[in-house]
Design a protein that fits this description.
about 650 residues; about 40% helix; 5-stranded parallel beta sheet; alpha/beta
């Protein structure tokens, strides 16, 4: 494309135009297809976006329309977002694992006319619900496998739309450039739907200006350059992927690497060796679970070596990472040997050996989990934000990292703690508003321009923000002591055998918990002990598994006993749920956040049993299967008492 104006690169299409001009041959995307990495340079990306945009225009896509994007991380789906924005439209990514009925709500709410999807699975979903979404007139698919005989009107292959685009561009050679030039930095660039923890998802409208301003702040903060490498594996619909993949790539010019499939992310991560990495705590928990499974399967000598050098890492690793003093020559030598024998090979196997900076956010991460990664030399830092603020509110600076905080406010961001303890935020990255919800927008953003996050927190003496929990979830035990369920749940989830946990205790005399075991970790543990099982429900009910989880709960309680604020929140009783908490059953959001109130209502009979002192409780639960069918799972659940400890105040 020949730039015909001097407009600033202040929209995503104009940023793309700039990279195509300044670094035409520099890799913009890599996609692993059939085991081979395919590279697309910036100049070719611009051409692909241009052809798709012109093709969409030929089909009737116009300025102000919304384009749904559904699928795993694929270059063409990112290009679809760019094409919509080039035409003055709005990208609306959806969670690819959502069932059709959930998609129907978003498609209807966002007034979707056009959708670009990955494959047959997503096409089938949209065709199933098209009758209830009358505006959905065109569905464009990337992967044509299984779609050859589809004759439904409005279903197009990506290639056929680009062929239309070639004709349209030939007949209207100035059209695409005119559309790009007509875009305004204040236009809505994307609508990202919230996870819907407490109700129906809301569409968060973000302008080009907000996303680009936030992205530039991040690039300055961590010196991100065009030579960085990022693996795109997070859901397209999550604000973390849009900001850290799409937005930062368009601003800095680095390459986005798309894995072959969700199942190959681990191996693809090792091959790419990204330098910049972002993931929610669950990703880091999963990685650590894999590590611990491998260690348990290793020989006695290797296990002993691993645990010895991990003790060395916990003792001196954080000081070395942050370049602090006080580490003796012997410990430095031991850590160097650990790097050679344990830490280095471990990071290489995990694909994290080239990591310059890694972040986690979305929810609180367990301090022990955080400490593990940093102690082996991975510069993992926490950030705080939400969809409505373009994520970035507070971030930890290298060398100034605390395990229990999320850092200091970012450049241009104002954070205020209300009298109620709620965290309020005002920043350049603040949303325009909720789509078609002016009343809820007015409720979320006050007259002074502060967004009410719904989180409870405070600043420590060093100016670091510490988030306690969701304000609505923080409560008090019957004796008046603080109850913060997420804090307790995160401590439980540090153990590789525990996948999810839900703690209860607000207004009650004791804290009790539901626990989901990690099927892979506990299954591996059971197989090594020759314990037969037929599935999740059977494995979760085994007495030996209850003993295993009881040990984890006991360790959490021992740790809580030393916490001045939360020693009264030790877990007194627990049970292992007979099924995994699942987004399809509305128990978790698509970003795997616990829908606490829904779970409390759905499993009220189990909560009553916990607090009534019963030793067993029968329950029958309705579930949704992957093919859309519904069924029931029943079990007679054991309820265990947990070991608790007397409160011990920390030394001053």
């Amino acid at each position: 494309m020949v730039e015909t104006t001097h407009k600033a690169a202040d929209t995503f299409p104009r940023l793309l135009e700039r990279h195509a001009r300044l670094r035409p041959a520099h890799p913009a995307f890599r996609e692993k297809h059939l085991g081979i990495w395919q590279t697309t340079p910036w100049a070719e990306v611009e051409n692909q976006v241009k052809l798709l945009a012109c093709g969409l225009a030929a089909l009737g896509f116009r300025r102000g329309m919304n384009l749904a994007v559904v699928g795993d991380n694929r270059p063409r789906l990112y290009w679809a977002m760019a094409a919509a924005q080039s035409l003055g439209g709005v990208a609306v990514p959806l969670y690819q694992d959502a069932p059709a009925v959930d998609m129907a709500y978003v498609l209807e709410n966002a007034e979707i006319d056009f959708a670009v999807v990955e494959d047959q699975e997503q096409v089938d979903k949209l065709l199933e619900i098209r009758a209830s979404v009358p505006g959905l007139s065109h569905i464009v698919y990337d992967d044509g496998r299984g779609l050859r005989n589809y004759t439904q009107p409005g279903v197009h292959s990506f290639e056929s739309v680009q062929v239309l685009g070639q004709v349209h561009d030939r007949d209207h050679p100035q059209f695409f450039q005119q559309q790009v030039n007509a875009g305004s930095t204040d236009d809505i660039a994307v609508i990202l739907y919230t996870s819907g923890t407490t109700g129906k998802p809301k569409g968060v409208c973000h302008s080009h200006a907000a996303m680009i301003a936030t992205g530039r702040t991040l690039i300055e903060f961590d010196q991100v350059t065009a030579d960085d490498e990022v693996l795109c594996y997070l859901p397209l619909a999550w604000v973390g992927d849009f900001l850290y993949s799409y937005a930062l790539s368009n601003i800095a010019g680095f390459c986005l690497n798309c894995p072959e499939s969700p199942a190959t992310v681990g191996s693809d991560l090792r091959e790419i060796g990204p330098s910049y990495y972002f993931g929610p705590p669950r990703i880091y928990e999963n990685i650590l679970t894999q590590v611990m499974i491998r260690i348990e399967d290793a020989s006695a000598i290797k296990r002993a070596m691993f645990h010895y050098f991990m003790r060395v890492a916990r003792r001196v690793g954080l000081k070395l990472l942050d370049k602090q003093g006080g580490v003796g020559i012997v410990d430095r030598l031991l850590y160097a040997v650990g790097e050679l024998l344990v830490y280095g090979p471990l990071k290489n196997v995990l694909g994290l050996s080239r990591i310059r900076v890694a972040y986690t956010g979305g929810e609180a991460i367990g301090p022990d989990l955080f400490d593990f990664y940093r102690s082996i030399g991975i510069n993992l830092k926490q950030l705080y934000g939400m969809t409505e603020t373009c994520v970035t509110v507070c971030m930890q600076r290298s060398g100034d990292v605390k395990l229990d905080t999320v850092g200091k406010p970012m450049k241009g961001v104002e954070v205020h703690i209300a009298d109620s303890g709620e965290v309020l935020v005002r920043s350049p990255g603040l949303m325009i508003g909720y789509y078609k919800k002016p009343e809820e927008t007015a409720e979320a953003i006050d007259d002074h321009g502060y967004f009410h996050t719904g989180d409870a927190g405070f600043f420590d003496t060093d100016g670091h923000l510490k988030i306690i929990d969701r304000a609505k979830d923080v409560g008090k035990m019957a004796d008046g002591t603080l109850f913060a369920p997420k804090y307790i749940e995160n401590k439980l989830k540090f153990f590789p055998f525990i996948k999810e946990a839900v703690a209860f205790g607000d207004g009650r005399a004791s804290c009790n918990a539901f626990i989901n075991i990690d099927m892979e970790a506990v299954g591996n543990w059971a197989e090594r002990r020759n314990l037969p099982y037929s599935g999740y429900t059977d494995l979760a009910s085994q007495p030996a598994v209850y003993d295993l989880i009881a040990e984890c709960v006991q360790k959490v309680n021992a740790d809580l006993a030393h916490d001045d604020l939360l020693s009264g929140s030790q877990i007194h009783r627990f049970l292992i749920l007979h099924k995994e908490l699942d987004p399809d059953d509305d128990e978790l959001t698509r970003t795997r956040k616990v829908r606490r109130r829904f779970i409390a209502e759905k499993y009220a009979i189990l909560i009553d049993a916990l607090y009534a002192g019963r030793q067993r409780q029968f329950i029958e639960t309705q579930v949704k299967f992957e093919d859309g069918r519904q069924g029931k799972i029943s079990a007679d659940l054991e309820i265990r008492d947990a070991s608790t400890f007397s409160a011990t105040r920390k030394a001053a």
